[in-house]
Automatic annotation (TrEMBL):
Residues in NADH-ubiquinone oxidoreductase 51kDa subunit iron-sulphur binding domain copies: 448-493
Species annotation: Geobacter anodireducens
Entry-linked CDD domains: TRX_Fd_family
Annotated protein name in UniProt: NAD(P)H-dependent oxidoreductase subunit E
Keyword Ligase: no
Length: 570
């Protein structure tokens, strides 16, 4: 296939869609599937067949539409009319929607989301542009939406150096958490000596409450393949790997199908799009280890070794897979590349914040009216995300905090609701953007308990290679358990803070280095809750069960006698 063939395929698919009277799209992402979307899709397809309207109406599955807590979601696109999204659709309601299209009437029991709902109007979709609009299992839909045009442009009109310069000029930063400039990493890999080089897409997304990469892999797999191919051309690699979290079965299956289709069409493999560039992509499935999200552990896993980190430098761009230069980027980062190459670095750099350009995908979860997947310009405030897009806190409760960045991040309290969500602003208030998980908490959340939850996760996911992380995370969690159970002594809080500093500064990889962050940030903003648990044996949020009922003496001797020496657990 050459660029002319690609454009012909796009025209043919667009003509096919325009010939349809209506497209009824059912969200077939994991959240909606778990809510019963497959039964809705089957019912719609059966009703279309029974009505003998196959030539006029298409019922198809798509990727994530966004407001996951309102699923199953159905989008109706009638020619010449605005699209309508219906929430909480059942199989019977799906049939009603279809018959209303046929008869030109509105379904009597349907609940459409208004098109001017802030959840839709306040977003700017680049990475998620196709999610919920195309069938992720048909390459023609992606091509009709402009897919692979950026790859054709790069291969036939740009040099590898041009591509790297464009990525650098865009200001794109890695969306996996650290925010490292993508252009710097690409240039390091391009200039590194080596007969063979690799490109790796990191899809080992393990943060609790985060599913941004999963949705992109499930909803728009060809966007990732195109971004990887452009990266391979830019750095001189002929082999790519997508490392997919083991629990992401649907994402892996759709990526495999997308790779096969792209190879059949000449968009991957030998002489891509009639050029001299060849690029192959394979999938590697993780075994469920959170630490494999760290790039050196990930490479060890790809090579068939135990997923444990190793010292840097040398960095992967210098010496990575099998000793060869390796470019590793997060899935969202690579999914942004086609838009930058297609529309230009200046366009992308003009979006978002000055030092954090572009958009960011967030998984909005927890105590918020509308939870789901959103994409907003960098610099959008937390208040806009929670109250405008997310609809605020349910039940009239007060916002208390947002946990950003998962177990590696920290809590943002109500006093910082107007903080812009960009790398520098979030670092100033003691947290990180991370991969994009945002867990919203209301007044019923206990912050020491929240810290204990994330420490428990880090303790369980530690690979055990270095002592600070292996032992320190266990001891920190033990101290937090004492605090939340009302069995801690005042000295335990001092020991907890000392351990946070020790583990964070001496651990080998990012897991251990950032494991104390939830404790540090909750202590910074909610220290009074820790002190209430320790000194008053009381949980201000009424969530923790206090184990010690007797009142301590003025000097704490009664409590010490009951519990033992500091650090001792009975």
């Amino acid at each position: 296939m050459n660029p002319a063939d690609l454009h012909a395929m796009a025209r043919e698919e667009r003509a096919r869609q325009e010939a349809l009277r209506c497209r009824i799209m059912v969200c077939a992402g994991t959240p909606c599937l778990s809510a019963g979307a497959l039964a809705v899709l089957d019912a719609l397809r059966q009703a279309v067949a029974e009505s003998r309207l196959d030539a006029e109406i298409e019922a198809t599955g798509t990727g994530c539409m966004g407001p996951c807590s309102r699923g199953p979601l159905v989008k109706v696109a009638v020619q010449g009319k605005p699209e309508t999204v219906y929430e909480r659709v059942t199989p019977e309601l799906g049939r009603q929607i279809l018959y209303s299209v046929v008869k030109g009437r509105r379904p009597p029991t349907a609940s459409p989301l208004p098109p001017d709902h802030p959840y839709f109007t306040r977003q700017m979709k680049i990475v998620l542009a196709n999610c919920g609009s195309i069938d992720p299992e048909r390459i023609e839909g992606y091509v009709a939406a402009g897919g692979y045009d950026a790859l054709a442009h790069a291969l036939h009109e740009m040099t590898p150096e041009d591509v790297c310069r464009e990525i650098s000029a865009s200001g794109l930063r890695g969306r996996g958490g650290a925010g490292y400039p993508a252009g710097v990493k690409w240039n390091l890999a391009r200039k590194a000596p080596g007969e063979r080089k690799y490109v790796v897409a990191n899809g080992d997304e393990g943060d609790p409450g985060a599913y941004m990469d999963r949705s992109v892999m499930e909803s728009d797999p060809h966007r990732i393949l195109e971004g990887m191919a452009i990266a391979g051309y830019a750095v001189g690699a002929d082999q790519g790997y997508i490392y997919v979290r083991g629990e992401y079965y649907l994402a892996g299956r759709r990526l495999e199908a997308a790779i096969r289709d792209a190879e059949r069409k000449g968009l991957l493999g030998s002489r891509v799009l009639g050029s001299n560039f060849s690029f192959r992509i394979d999938i590697r499935t993780g075994a469920g280890a959170f630490v494999c999200g760290e790039e050196t552990s990930l490479m060890a896993s790809i090579m068939g070794r135990r997923g444990q980190p190793w010292h840097r430098p040398p960095y992967p761009a210098q010496r990575g897979l099998w000793g060869c230069p390796t470019l590793i980027n997060n899935v969202e980062t690579l999914a942004t590349v086609p838009a930058i190459i297609g529309r230009g670095a200046a366009w992308y750099a003009g979006i978002g914040a000055a030092r954090s350009p572009g958009t960011k995908v967030y998984a909005l979860a927890g105590q918020v009216e509308t939870a789901g997947l959103i994409e907003v310009p960098m610099g959008t405030t937390l208040r806009e995300v929670v109250f405008d897009i997310g609809g605020g806190i349910p039940g009239g409760k007060r916002f208390k905090a947002a946990q950003s960045g998962g177990p590696s991040g920290g809590c943002i309290p109500a006093e910082h609701l107007d903080t812009p969500l960009d790398y520098e602003s979030m670092e100033r208030i003691g947290t990180i953007m991370g991969s994009g998980g945002l867990i919203i908490m209301d007044e019923t959340s206990c912050m020491p308990d929240v810290a204990s939850f994330f420490l428990d996760f880090c303790r369980d996911e530690s690979c055990g290679k270095c002592i600070p992380c292996r032992v320190g995370s266990m001891e920190m969690h033990r101290l937090l358990q004492r605090i939340t159970s009302g069995t801690a002594l005042p000295d335990d809080l001092r020991r907890l803070e000392e351990l946070c500093d020790l583990v964070g500064t001496t651990s080998l990889c990012g897991l251990g280095q950032t494991a104390p962050n939830p404790v540090v940030s909750t202590l910074r903003y909610f220290r009074h809750e820790y002190e209430a648990h320790i000194r008053e044996r009381r949980c201000p949020a009424d969530r923790c069960t206090m184990a010690v009922e007797q009142e301590p003496g003025p000097d704490g001797e009664a409590l010490m006698h009951a519990l033992g020496a500091p650090g001792e657990v009975r």
